[in-house]
Amino acid sequence: MQEGLSGQAGVQLYESRCDLAEPLYPDELEHIRRAVPKRFNEFCTVRALVRRGLKDFGLPRPSMVPGERGEPRWPMGVVGSITHCQGYRAVAIGRSCEVRGVGIDAEPNHPLPGGVYQRISSADERAAADQVEVLHPDVCGDKVLFSAKEAVFKAWFPLERTLLGFEQVQIILSPDGLFTAAIRPSAPRQRPVGGVPARLSGHWDLSEGILRTAVVLPSRETD
Ligand SMILES: CC(C)(COP(=O)(O)OP(=O)(O)OC[C@H]1O[C@@H](n2cnc3c(N)ncnc32)[C@H](O)[C@@H]1OP(=O)(O)O)[C@@H](O)C(=O)NCCC(=O)NCCS
Description:
The protein is an alpha+beta fold. It has helices spanning 2-6, 26-32, 37-56, 116-120, 123-135, 141-160; strands spanning 12-16, 78-85, 88-95, 99-108, 169-173, 178-183, 199-207, 210-218.
């Protein structure tokens, strides 16, 4: 995935396998102070990664209290996405003049709980995921599929501001580490300003037990 992300102009990935300390702003502290230690630590860790990323862009890290739907709120001119799971935290950051949006997700390489796979996928999606498992027997194709949908949602939501059901995003995985996503919003979009295309392409990989997925929406100029 890193290769895929770094192939997109302006997007950088910052990762950590352990918790990092980060001073929080008073409003961030107020937002997170009642969280369990695991959640508190991941909240701090990704903000430490955001600080690194923004520093590379020559920017300070502002307070980043999540938006009303949990979305990260980036400073003007910046787009990005955040993920964390057991043993892994990551932030992808790009400049909005080069990248319209980005979504990343990470999941432990374990199968989905019983019954979930059928609920979040179609027969065509499962057939493609089966092919991934044939060529990569160490990869949980069901979890890659789930993760890819989460990554698409994270790229979609900040631009379109509407929810997506799992059935509204069809993911076709490819064994070569790529996937396509076809998005079918439930109602005609009220605001075309977001401009997320109906078809996206993304990347997946397995790194040290963690499945990672990413989609990057190029700026309109490079469509
Ligand atoms: C929001 C969601 C995608 C997060 O995924 P997750 O696997 O539970 O958790 P991750 O650790 O990978 O990601 C968490 C980060 O996602 C980001 N996030 C949360 N809500 C978001 C949203 N609405 N839009 C974009 N990013 C969002 C946040 O930055 C969060 O980190 P933070 O709270 O520390 O700032 C998931 O909880 C969710 O609500 N899913 C339902 C929507 C969905 O997936 N629909 C089907 C897809 S087609």
